[in-house]
Amino acid sequence: MLENVKKIPSASNPDLCLSVIPGHFSSDRFHVNYYIDMTTLKTRMSEAQLVAKEMCKKYVHRIQLTETKFSGFFNTSMIDNLANAEAIDTIICMDGCEVIGAYVADELSKTGISTNNLHKTFYIVSPEFDKAGQMVVRDNIKPMIKGKNVLVILASAMSGRTIYKSIKCIQAYGGNVKGINVIFGAIDEIEGYPVHAVFSTKDLPDFELAEPENCTACKNNEPLTAIVNSYGYSIL
Prior knowledge:
Elements: E1 6-9, E2 17-26, E3 31-37, H1 39-43, H2 45-56, H3 67-70, H4 76-81, E4 90-93, H5 98-110, E5 123-125, E6 128-129, E7 135-136, E8 149-157, H6 161-172, E9 176-185, E10 189-190, E11 193-200, E12 209-210, H7 216-219, E13 226-229, E14 232-235
Parallel strand pairs: 2-13, 4-5, 4-8, 8-9, 9-11
Antiparallel strand pairs: 1-2, 2-3, 3-12, 6-7, 10-11, 13-14
Helix pairs in contact: 2-5
């Protein structure tokens, strides 16, 4: 079990925390000096709900009005539902973010975000990937992407490679990417699309991501702590 876990509270919600563990870690391509543990954020009901609420803030901009100033023009219900956002039809969840995706759909519904789907509800899709890391879209999933406004949810965005492949795949199948949400992001945008992160390197300013040949820990002959990916870690 990895030790020295640090809890980093969200700047906008102190009840939402990111767990990080310092060390020397290797992913499929990069070395990092922190393992970002998102296990409970993706699987624990209460935390997944909080993550979903933070993600939805990027797409729902409520108009702040007071009942006293606008009494006679607006009622509480009208004020609560005033929002400015585009319709979302499909939510694509990667890295085990299905629970968060379901709560995002619920939160969008509560805040009045519309959908163009005939049944007036959202599709929540877990994509399949081939050995090359390319998203695979089966025939039964194609109608959920073609002509749909798509929101993408991932655990992390480090180099942007996975997001880039996903964007190209969604576009190839006729989908319109309307947003990219991640729990932790080391990049701000990819292919002109903003990457909306609940936590970023601003919350973890000494976070380092490097090719193995440029890794500071490797140059200092520090042994690897574990092999990591968005699903977890394997101690060496």
